[in-house]
Amino acid sequence: MYSKGLAPLAAATAVTITTAFALVFFYAPNDADQGFVQKIFYVHVPMAIVALCGFIAGGLFAIRHLRSGDSSWDLRSYVAIHMSIILGLGVLVTGAIWAKASWGHWWVWDEPVLVSFLVVFLLYCVYYPLRFSIEDPSRQARYSSVFAIAAGAFVPLNFVAVRLAEAYTHPRVLSQTGGDLPGDMRLTFLVSLLGMALLFVTLWKLELTAKHASMQLKRLRNRARVAA
Amino acid sequence: MIAAARTILRKDLLIELRTKESVPAMVLFSITVYVLFHFGLDRDSLDGELASGVLWVTLLLAALIGVSRLFAAEREQGGIDGLLLAPVDRTALFVAKAAALFVFLTAVELVAVPAFALLLLGPGLGGAFPELPVVLLLGNVGVAAVGALVAALAAETRARELIVPLLLLPLLVPVLIACAQATEPLFRQDAGPEDLGRWLGLLSLYDVVFVLLSVAVFDFLLED
Fold first, then answer.
1. What pLDDT does B141 receive?
2. Domain extent at residue B19
3. What is the pLDDT of residue B103?
4. Residues B187, B128: contact at Cβ < 8 Å?
């Protein structure tokens, strides 16, 4: 039920990601001040954008679950958040590497996007202990959905708050990822973003299929045990 | 709904008045944390950023105690079934619990903030009026709304003591940012408000979002 179109999607992901890496290494120019290291931007930023969209999508699926009572939406929300947390870890690691290479420190508190991301990441990590400490399946789905919605609303609010706090001490004139990229860099960035988004959707569908299959298997085993 | 909420609130306040469980514990906790900060920072008096940071971190940690005790009476005595069986809206329950938490926080601050001024604050509270009470009240609204939601979320889980702080503290980061930044200029030697509008605006936005959100989703918690 979740695996529909998975094969072509996986193929499209493989092609787009390969193209993106080819563009990153052979087409996009080295950055004038940061040099080669700046290329981590093509992994870090798309990953961050996709992870945040995944968190928000988790909230939207959760709203659908609470509206309809259909537990498949809860599963979608759970897997979206699960995938986003994995990408989120990647964002923090690549962010730290980039920060070390370009500013000389592993962690920079006056980079508002990175700091907000850490707070959001810490919040979403609590999704697992919350979800798995509730045994009743329908209550588990409902409570997880409430969490997903509250946390989804928290994401933009937190970004505003952290940005205001940092802007207060460190005025920021140019945004790092703003629309002022030269054309060849922008093309590479957009292809990388598309590749990362496709990767997310593919992994999401794959995980949904796997979770669904193992749930069905468990149900069949229970039925076999009851029959025997 | 208002009548039901008022009844539940009265019950909670009456229980607190008789058992004196949450508020004195929160006050005691705050003062202990001031002592810890005194030794941890090795400073006799604080001002500016450090003072507002210490005050707000302490108040938010004290709020944790109130939040984790918020459904304690219902849980221990099985009163939650009574409340859920009563033909009242869940929204009434949320409003009552959030209001109770708001009252507790305000009561704690009435003691804990003067105690902070007495024990640690260098410049004194004189320059912080009338802005500080406004910041405290707006902060309390946000903490109360999020706290009631988190308390209800954690009430039915096995790892309750674990979930409440892990969930509440990241959610309160924007409150901490806004309150600490708004309070910081009030605690300087040359006290006076600075950029107050921006932080009060952020706090109000947070309050509105989380009050509405909690009212919207509370129906799905504490069912059956």
1. 96
2. 2-220
3. 96
4. yes
Total structural domains in chain B?
A: 1
- CA A35 to chain CA centroid, nearest Å: 27
Q: Would the CB atoms of B167 and A126 count as touching at under 8 Å?
A: yes
pTM attached to this predicted model: 0.89
Residue A67 contacts residue A213 (beta carbons within 8 Å): no
Give the distance from residue B220's alpha carbon to the nearest chain A alpha carbon, in angstroms.
7
Closest CA to A47 of A79, A81, A92, A10: A92
In angstroms and rounded to an integer, the radius of gyration of the C-alpha atoms of chain B is 18
Give the residue-averaged pLDDT of A80-98.
Answer: 93
Please, are residues A80 and A147 in contact by the beta-carbon 8 Å criterion? no
CB burial of residue A68 (10 Å; 0-12, 13-18, 19+):
exposed
The pLDDT assigned to A171 comes to: 47
Enter the DSSP assignment of B87.
Answer: S
3-state secondary structure of B46: strand
Shortest distance between the Cα of B202 and any Cα of chain A, in A, equals: 7
pLDDT at A163 over 90: no
In chain A, which residue's Cα lies nearest the Cα of B223?
A139
Structure tokens, B188:
């300087």
